[in-house]
Amino acid sequence: MYDLTVIIPTFREESTIGTIIAEVDAIFFRNAIRGEILVVDDNSPDRTIDIVRDLKNQKPNLNLVVRQQDHGLSQSVVEGFRQAQSDIFLVMDADLSHPPALIPVMLAEIRAGNDLVIGSRYMEGGGIKKWPLKRRILSMGATFLGRLLFPEIRDPVSGFFAVKKSVVEHAPLRPRGYKILLEVLGKGTWKKEKEIPFEFVDRAIGSSKLKGQTIIEYAGQVIDNARFSWNHHESVVWQEWMKLFKFGVVGLSGIIVNEGLLIYLKEYVHLSLWVSGIIAIELSILSNFIWNDLWTFKSDSRHALPHRWLRLLSFQVVSIGGAAINFVILNVLATQIGIDYRIADLLGILVAFAWNFWVNRRMTWKMGL
Ligand SMILES: Nc1nc2c(ncn2[C@@H]2O[C@H](COP(=O)(O)OP(=O)(O)OP(=O)(O)O)[C@@H](O)[C@H]2O)c(=O)[nH]1
Ligand SMILES: [Mg+2]
After folding, report:
1. Whose CA is closest to 79, among 40, 46, 50?
2. Residue range 234-242: average pLDDT?
3. CA 196–ligand 2 middle distance (angstroms)
4. Residue 369 has pLDDT above 80, yes or no
5. Of all protein residues, whose CA lies closest to atom 21 belonging to ligand 1?
6. What are the domain boundaries of the chain?
7. Protein residue with its CA nearest to atom 12 in ligand 1
8. Which of 5, 119, 142, 238 is 20–30 Å from 156 (CA)?
C-alpha cells in the first residue's frame, strides 16, 4: 500500500512524460514518500506508452493504464481514482505545467485534515506564465462560472489537486470535459478544503488539446452540478445556495425593520426625517447582521474573522458600500439615462444585494483556515 498516488492523465505526451515521472519520483525519494505514479493514457498514437512501459521495468512504483474507449481527460482521471493503490490521490498534468515540488506540501495538508487540497493559480502567490490573452479570458470565464457554485474557492477548475479517496469513492461522478475538479467539488463528500498558490507554466513542448467543444461541455457540467445539488441537500453547492436564500430573507426582513422604524420614529417620536432615516437604516443593518450571524452563516463555525465585533465591523462597511452602489445606480439610471426611478431603484437594490452577499461571503463570513 502506498502513501499517495500521483495520477497523471496523458494523451500524446512523449516529449515530457519521461521527465515528469523522473521528477515526481525524485520528490518521493527526497521526502521519504512511498508514492505510486499512475499514468492513465488514452491509447496515445505516439511513443508515450512505450516510454512508460520501459520506465516501469526500473520503477516498481510506476503503473500504467491504457484506455481504449470513451476518450477524455476527466474520464481518465476517474479511471485513475479506481485503479490507484492508496487512499490519497494527487492529479497533475504531464506537460510540466504543475510543479512536482508541491507534492509533499499537498500531501502534508491532506494529512493535516483537509479533504481536498487545490493548487491554485488565482490567489496571492499564484499565477500563470506565458498564456496568450485568449486562454486567459477563457480561463477567467470558466473560473467565474465555477465560483458561482463555490464562492469560497478561487480556482475551482484547477487541474492540480490532491484529494482523499473517501471524497470520491462513492461520488456519482459524471466525468466529461476537462474540469474534473469541479465534478469532484460538486459531487464529492468533503468539508475541509485548502488552496495552495502555484505558478502555472504553459507547456513549452507538446501540443494542446483544448477545443471549442470543451467550453460547451464545461457549461453543461456546471448546470449538471447545479441540478445535482437540488437533489442532494448535503452537497456543498446546496448549502451555499441556502446561504444565498437566507441572506435574501434577512434582507427582506431588514426592509420591514427599516420602514417600520422610520414610520415609528417620524410619526410617533416626532424625530426629523433625517434622524429617523439614519436610525432606521443603522438599526436595520444591525438586525440584518444578527440574523445573518446567528442563522444564515451559522453552519460555518470556523470563521476567518473570529470575533463577532470584527464581523459586525466588516458587515457595516460592506453595507455602506452596498448603499452607495444602490444610490449611484439609482441616480445614474434615473437622471442620466432616463429610466423610471422605481425600476432604476430596483436594479440598484439587485446589484447592491449581489455585492453585499458576495463580499460578505468572501470576507465577513469566510470560512477560517
Ligand atoms: N488520458 C487523457 N489525458 C488527456 C486528454 N487530454 C489531455 N490530457 C492530459 O491532460 C493534461 C492536461 O492537458 P493539456 O493539453 O496540457 O491541457 P491544458 O494544460 O489545459 O492546455 P495546454 O497545456 O495548453 O495544452 C496533460 O497531461 C494531457 O496529456 C485525454 O483526452 N485523455
Ligand atoms: Mg497543459
Report:
1. 40
2. 91
3. 19
4. no
5. 208
6. 4-231, 237-364
7. 93
8. 5
- Whole-prediction pTM value? 0.86
Spell out where the chain has E strands: 4-10, 35-41, 62-66, 88-91, 116-120, 127-129, 161-164, 193-197, 199-201
Distance (angstroms) between ligand 2 centre and the Cα of 207 equals: 8
Give the bridge partners for 170, in sequence order. Answer: none
CB 35 within 8 A of CB 2: yes
Atom of ligand 1 nearest to the CA of 42: 1
- For the CA of 159, the nearest ligand: 1
Q: Give the C-alpha separation, 103 to 90, whole Å.
A: 8
Residue 20 CB–ligand 1 contact under 6 Å: no
Cα 38 versus chain centre, distance: 26
Mean pLDDT calculated for residue range 62-72: 96
Determine whether the shortest distance from the Cβ of 77 to ligand 1 is under 6 A.
Answer: no
- Give the tens place of pLDDT for each residue, 339-365: 898 899 899 999 999 999 999 998 999
pLDDT value for 215: 82
Strands 199-201 and 116-120, bridge-based pairing: unpaired
